[in-house]
Amino acid sequence: LGLYFHSGEREEKCIIEDVPSDTLVIGNYKVQRWDIHQHDFPESAPGLGMFVTVTTPSAEVLLSKLYGPQGTFSFTSEESGDHIICFQSNSTRFVSFGGSKLRIHLDIRVGEHFIDESVVQAKDKVTEVTLRLGHLIEQIHHVSKEQNYEREREEKFRKTSEETNSNILWWAIVQTLILISIGIWQIKSLRDFFIAKKLV
Q1: For residue range 68-108, what is the model confidence (pLDDT) as tens digits?
Q2: In Å, what is the CA distance from 3 to each residue of 9, 81, 94, 114?
Q3: Rounded distance, CA 7 to CA 87, Å?
Q4: Percent of the chain with pLDDT over 90
Q5: Which superfamily does 2-112 belong to?
Q6: Per-domain residue ranges for the chain?
């Protein structure tokens, strides 16, 4: 997931990321502050920091840390579901002027593992191949875990759809019975009215 969004200097912005359990999530971000004189976002925003907060589906805070204007954060999910990742600058400006806008570039990678530096520095080809093979096996485990998670979600969605269809069917039957009952009651009322008025 790669994106950027705008935010006020003291405004909190959050995104939701659906993550399987026991999965590593790595996020890279860069903050740019609007320069009112240049009418543009300079490449860096020195002195500006970002509070990064990650909340689990059960509302537990998994990560809460202050980083610089550019950085990398990571966390491992403890449970599957929607994780809320929030960003808020540590700006001391209390009033949001027209020039206090921030642009936050964000790149989130789910399930990726840090490449071991020993792989890069390995002089021995056998060691390098072994380490790369271990990395590939980790990625295969992650893909398998991701597939199982998607299968569980699909099964849950199918069950919900079947329950909804069943409820719709019963509601249609109840509506039909109500309409038939009202029709019978109206016919009986009209018949009794005509008999009372001696029209039949």
Answers
A1: 888 999 999 988 889 999 999 887 665 444 447 888 899 99
A2: 18, 21, 27, 21
A3: 9
A4: 34
A5: GOLD domain (2.60.120.680)
A6: 2-112, 137-174
